[in-house]
Amino acid sequence: MLILEKPYVSETLIQTAIKNNLPVLRNSMSELLASRGYKLNLYNDDEFVAEYHKRHRLYSMSENGLGWIVEHLKDKELIDKIELLKNKATFRRICSDMYPDFFFKEVEIKELVKMDTTGLKFPLVLKPSVGFLSVGVYVVHDDAEWKNAIADIEKNFAKSSAQFPEFVVGTAKFLIEEYIHGEEYAVDAYFDAEGVPAILNIYHHRFASESDTSDRLYCSSKALYDAYEKTFTDFLVNTNKVIGLRNFPMHIEFRYDGRKAIPIEINPLRFAGFCLNELQTHITGIHPVVAYLENIHISKEEMWKGRENDTYSFLVLERPANAPEGSVFDSKKFKDSFFDVLEIREVKEASVGVAATAFTRTDKAHEAELDTILTLDMMDYMKG
User: Fold this and answer.
1) Residues 6+ apart with CB under 8 A from 17
2) What is the residue extent of each domain of the chain?
3) pLDDT digits over 162-184, tens only?
4) Measured between alpha carbons, how far is 371 from 367 in angstroms, rounded to an integer?
5) How far is 379 from 318, CA to CA, in rounded Å?
């Protein structure tokens, strides 16, 4: 069962929903797609609720779909789990036994804006207790940056709050926590009907430098699975001993500090956004949403058989701020520049700030091209 929402629904997911005749909630997004000729299996609110109570497996494309769930589903256990995972402070408290030395503190906004930073250890992270997509997230290195962050919160946070339900963004409280040094990773996984975790994707979120905060490059490989699959599986098992999730997908982002993996973000009832999760489809041919809804467990051996020396990557290719109006992404030039570009998805809407996304495969002989991708000047790939 699917809830499709803005800002983006991939053609691959649409065709997957049609092929598998998945129940899709009738809302503004699904009706827009239907008006464009897509033969989706649409259910109105009451029909969708009734079908959910038969199937008990639901996937929401984005955070906005969670608001519909809270309003319409009479499943208190599911709603409680969503609210628990959306609240970063609550989740930190649940995980405190796993990370006893990790510093965090929750404060109300009215306390935050007049807070004395004496005793705080920089760098630190400041973010809403309930939030997503880095809305209102600040990495603060000193008192000057703290003051700038507070000023920015007071000036701009109301605008972000107006775009999403308070349930999603949550402006009431902020979380102050220590900054986690190390490499960044992400996991798409679900818990089956017995509460057993099934990992569908492991990504290494690569950056060009310490100051880089872009989503330019995510990579996956057998070597990555060999190194971290057990670590992430253990985290899921231990966490679920406390939470008790069943029939539940999630996307989790971690930092690995050299000793342990510490979660920095959790998104309930969905996998990675902006079609990153469909990297799995390019590797195995199985869409991760179908894997979850049909209870498919994909083993590491199955996933990487015959691909042991390859790296599969997902690229977010930003539209340059100085790109001339009317210019478009040069897909042919990009495809010709790299070893094996599996798919390019051009983004026509300039306001999104992305020229295209791409899926690639890289063998060991061409691994250096991944570093090249991280530092590309995107103006070299715009035309018109």
Assistant:
1) 2, 4, 24, 40, 41
2) 2-85, 87-178, 180-308, 309-384
3) 555 555 444 568 999 999 999 99
4) 8
5) 10
Gyration radius of the chain over CA positions: 21
CA distance 154 to 200: 39
C-alpha–C-alpha distance, residues 244 and 252, integer Å: 17
Domain 87-178 identical in fold to domain 180-308: no
Q: Which residue type, as a one-letter code, is found at position 38?
A: Y
DSSP 351: G
CATH architecture of 180-308: 2-Layer Sandwich (3.30)
More confident residue, 69 or 213: 69
Considering only CA atoms, which of 59, 68, 55 is closest in space to residue 24?
59
Region 218-234: what's the mean pLDDT?
97
Separation of CA 193 from chain center: 23
pLDDT one-digit tens code per residue, 243-275: 999 999 999 999 998 889 999 989 999 999 989
- Do the Cβ atoms of 185 and 261 come closer than 8 Å? yes
Q: Would you identify the CATH topology of the domain 87-178?
A: Dna Ligase; domain 1 (3.30.1490)
Question: Which DSSP category does 87 fall into?
Answer: B
Q: Which pair of tokens denotes residue 77?
A: 């256990």
Query: With pLDDT > 70 as the criterion, what percentage of the chain qualifies?
Result: 93
The tens digit of pLDDT for each residue in 54-95 reads 999 999 988 788 889 999 998 999 999 999 999 999 999 999
Alpha helix ranges (H) inside the chain: 11-19, 28-35, 45-55, 64-72, 76-86, 88-94, 109-112, 143-163, 166-169, 222-243, 279-284, 288-293, 300-304, 331-337, 368-374
* Tokens, residue 153: 């919160």
Distance, CA of 233 to CA of 81 (rounded, Å): 19
Kindly state the average pLDDT of the residues 366-383: 96
123 prior amide bond cis, ω within 30: yes
